[in-house]
Amino acid sequence: MLHGFAGIVVQWVTYFAIYGIIALSFNIEYGFTGIPNFGKVLFVAIGAYAAGVLAASLVIDAAAPLLHVKINATGMPQYCSGNASYVLGEAGSVLSPWFLAGVFLLAVLAAAVAGAVSSVVASFPALRLREDFLAITLLAAGEIVRLVTWTSTWPVCGFNGINGIPGPFAWSGSSDLLYMLVALGFLVLAYLYTDYATNSPWGRALKAVRDDEVAAEVYGYDIARIRMQALLVGSALAGVAGALLVFYSGNVNANSYKPDLTFMVIAAVILGGSANNLGALVGAAIITSLDIFMNPSAFQALGITLPTNVGNALVYLKYVILGLVILAVLAFRPQGLLPEGPLRTPIVEKTRKRLQQYLSRIAGSSAAGTEEAENP
Amino acid sequence: MVDWGIILYGTISSLFDGLMVGSLYGLMALGLTLIFRVTRIANFAYAEYITYAAYAAYAAAAALGGVVGAVAAAVTATVVGALVSLLSDEAAFKPLWLRGADSLTLLVASMGVGFILRYSLLGVTALGNLPVQVNIQSVLSNNVLFTVGGLASFQYAHAAAILSAVVVASLMHWLFTRTRIGKAMRATASNPTLARISGINVYAVRRVTWLLAGAIGGLAGFLYGYYNPVNPESGWQTLLWIFAAAIMGGFTFYGALVSGIILGLAEALIGFYLYQFFGISTAYSPVIALLALVLVLLFRPEGVIRLEAHALRRRV
Fold it and tell me: Which of A27, A182, A317, B51 has a CB 3.0–4.6 Å from the CB of A280, allowing a cystine?
């Protein structure tokens, strides 16, 4: 574990990577396709639940015999039982690093699949409702899932949550530094993929659907299909981000997936510039800074101790600032810090290159005689 | 073995509670509908007007106490609700509207306004300057009006809520059918451009709409806080029910009221029966609101209890 300033930097980068992935996924849906998926946190939560449940089950199955602990769970999943968190906490020292890494990768994959599958749920209203009603429906769906999973023992132990899930580097002394690099790797992959996909013909189709459904339909685009594809990609990415969040914090608690997270992501994308992938990352960086530094623990790490009540109020002040930022951006710079640019379509580049070659060839052949005459 | 005595008195008690909560949902949905119809904003900040009004009502009730305190609390809540509502429009929504923001932008802005209001209240409570939870009933005495069999009690809060819903509905009916401003509001709601061409001052209509919606929300906030303890997130937790009622009513003024009462009864009765017969916790009852919302939007987006059609369906 790193402490002090270095610890904060590592924390910042890790959260930036996770928020960045969510912002990129929201940008595909909202920025490029025009689907206001205001239930974003729902898909992050589903990814987190899938990853958390899978990882906790696998690790307990493997570690409990080694630690000579008998898990006895009646009427609840085994990872909810009293000594499960002890087993999970000690698992890092008894299990091989390869096993933990395998569990991590498997859980991330499961989260992506769970997110993608759950996007079907969102696509059902998304094909039928007007934007603002879709936003209300998805927001409500996210809240209800949080409420139900917080009350019921299944899937994530209700209000207790699953605690102490070992990360892939639980064996290492500098696990958070290594984890930061992994999270950053995922962000780079997500960015490369999003940038490639949105600058492809598919990206043009997304924008066509966003800008004018009728025109897009006339040009032969299957609107329902394109919307579903955008939601599928966005939700799978959100699921991956949820899994990364689980292995960073080590716990899954239904109550940490509040609409506040959705709102932070909306703020990041609108602030950075919707339909601009780099903009989404810039927005995510600003929002992450707000999230990390408007927190008493950050002040603690820098050696400043705040009174308890001021510390608590600071966390709430974060959201007030977020609200003010949103209003200011909507009023004064609705296109965001980095406005939407033209697509870098290979078609245009290739055509331009060929045209230049063609032109230079014409110019070359007609000017060949004079050029040679002037420059012997 | 089911104890039928508990079922009977529980049903009566749930009916009382459902009617009360339903009347409040109806009132709140009416305010939300007013704003939506006139300004096209699905206003997420509406919940916060209710919370602010409830806190103001608590302050007034605690300061005065007794019957005077109750009246003062109702008046304070109404005024505070109206002012917070008007202020949020003048500061946030109107400038955006003048810049030509679309309905989704306004929705995001309303979430922003809601965040500012809710979290500043939470921040003030965290600093220790305000109670984390207020209970207006605890400072106003003499609560029970009558009981059925000594088990199902009908309190002043129930009477006040149901009576207020009836009175407000009658007043609104009078306003919409008999007064110039009411007719101007209806005209603006159905066609803003035509209303403007006809010489209606749409700015004045807008101002009156926000004041009126805020006042109704504020009154409902006081009545809600008269029965339930209120914390800074109470309004936000009620918002789902308010939206469900407004959407069920197809964003029509009377439809919203009726839908609110139906949803309130459904919450109380279904919640009670599910708990009694199946042991399912009442904490799940917001699922009813979500189901109502989703089913109505998917299969009858123009609303179930509507007085005029309002196309929400999107074309695919």
Answer: A27
- Exposed, middle or buried, B8 (CB in 10 Å: 0-12/13-18/19+)? middle
- Which pTM was predicted? 0.87
Domain residue spans in chain A? 4-344, 347-376
Of A147, A148, A327, the CB nearest to B109: A327
Burial of B42 (0-12, 13-18, 19+ CB in 10 A): buried
What is the mean pLDDT for each group of 10 consecutive residues in chain B (316 residues)?
78 89 93 90 92 92 83 92 94 90 89 93 86 77 71 81 89 85 86 89 92 94 88 89 90 87 91 85 82 82 60 38
Q: What part of B 228-247 touches A (C-beta under 8 Å)?
A: 240, 243-244, 247
Mutate to test the interface with A, among B51, B102, B111, B127 (most CBs of A within 10 A): B111
- Greatest Cα pair distance, chain A, in angstroms, is 96
A136 interfacial to chain B (CB closer than 8 Å): yes
Q: Quick: pLDDT tens for A1-10.
A: 566 778 888 9
CA distance A144 to chain B (A): 6
Residues 62..81 of A with a Cβ closer than 8 Å to B: which? none
What pLDDT shows up at residue B141?
Answer: 62
Lookup: tokens for A111:
């989260």
- Mean pLDDT, rounded, of chain A: 85
Contact A91, A63 (CB under 8 A): yes
How far is the C-alpha of A66 from the C-alpha of A90, rounded, in Å?
Answer: 10
Q: What is the CATH number of domain B4-299?
A: 1.10.3470
Task: Give the side-chain half-sphere CA count within 13 A for B276.
Answer: 18
The 10 Å Cβ neighbour count of residue B153 is 17
CATH number of A4-344: 1.10.3470
Cβ pair A330:B103 closer than 8 A: no
HEC string of A197-250? HHCCHHHHHHHHHHHCHHHHHHCCCCHHHHHHHHHHHHHHHHHHHHHHHHHHHC
Q: How far apart are CA A304 and CA A314, in angstroms?
A: 14
Which position has the higher pLDDT, A345 or B204?
Answer: B204
Q: What is the rounded CA–CA span in Å between residue A373 and residue A112?
A: 66
Backbone angles phi, psi at B144, to 5 degrees: -85, 130
